[in-house]
Amino acid sequence: MRICIYENAKDLGVHAAKVGAERIRMALKHQDVVSIIVATGASQFTMLEALIQEPDIDWSRVEAFHLDEYVGLDMEHPASFRKYLKERFADKVGPLKAFHYINADAVNLEQEVKRVSDLLDARTITVAFIGIGENGHLAFNDPPANLTTEKPYLVVELDDVCRKQQVGEGWFATVNDVPSHAVSMSIPRILKSECIISSVPDGRKAAAVSMALHASIDPEHPAASLRTHKDCYLMLDTDSASSIIS
Description:
Elements: E1 2-6, H1 9-28, E2 34-38, H2 45-51, E3 62-66, E4 68-70, H3 81-90, E5 98-100, H4 109-121, E6 125-130, E7 153-157, H5 160-168, E8 181-185, H6 187-190, E9 195-200, H7 206-214, E10 232-237
Parallel strand pairs: 1-10, 2-3, 2-6, 3-5, 6-9, 9-10
Antiparallel strand pairs: 4-8, 7-8
Helix pairs in contact: 1-2
C-alpha cells in the first residue's frame, strides 16, 4: 500500500485524480474500453472535481460502475448516489461508453442485483476510486463485513455508525430518514480491481485510517483488507492522517 499525505483535501483530490487518470490513459492505449469504479460521499468531492478536468482521456471509451446505492431511494432524492454521480461526474465528462447505475429502488431488487452483478462479473476494473467510512467500511460493507463472498454486489444492512455519518455529512435530516439497507459492491470484488485509489480526507476519518493500516484483517475491520491489494494508494490529508503522524 502506498500512503500519500497532503496538506489539505483539495491537494489530495488533485493528486488522486492525476494518479487515476494516468492509469486510465495507459489502459486506453491497449484496450478499446476501460472500466472504472467511482464512489460517492463528501470524501470524493475534490477528487471528482479534479478528475473531470484531466486532459487527454477519451471518456467515450470509458464505462463506469458505482459502489453502492440505498435500497428504495429514487434517483431524484438529494442523497441518491445515482444523482450524485450523474451530476458531479457523468454529465460533466461528456458521453461515457456507459454508466452502470444501481437501480436500488427497482420493484424486483433481486433481479436488479443480478443485472449489475452480471455486468461487473464480465469486466476487469482498471481503477477503483473509493473512500473509507468512519466505521472503516468499504462501499457499504459495514463491520462485520463479508470478506469471502463471491458475489459482486450484495444487499447489506447499514449499522448505526454508518447511518449517523450520512446525517453528519448532511445527506439526511435524521438517522430515521436514512434507509436501513443498501446494495453494495462486495469487498472481494473491489479488491479485484487492478488499481485502487482510496481518498480519505477529514479528521473524522482518522480512526478508520488507523484501522486500514494497523488493524487485523478480519470482518470487524473492513478497511484493513486494503493491505492485501498489490496496487493500492491511500490518499490522506493531514487531518485524516493525524493518528499515524506525530
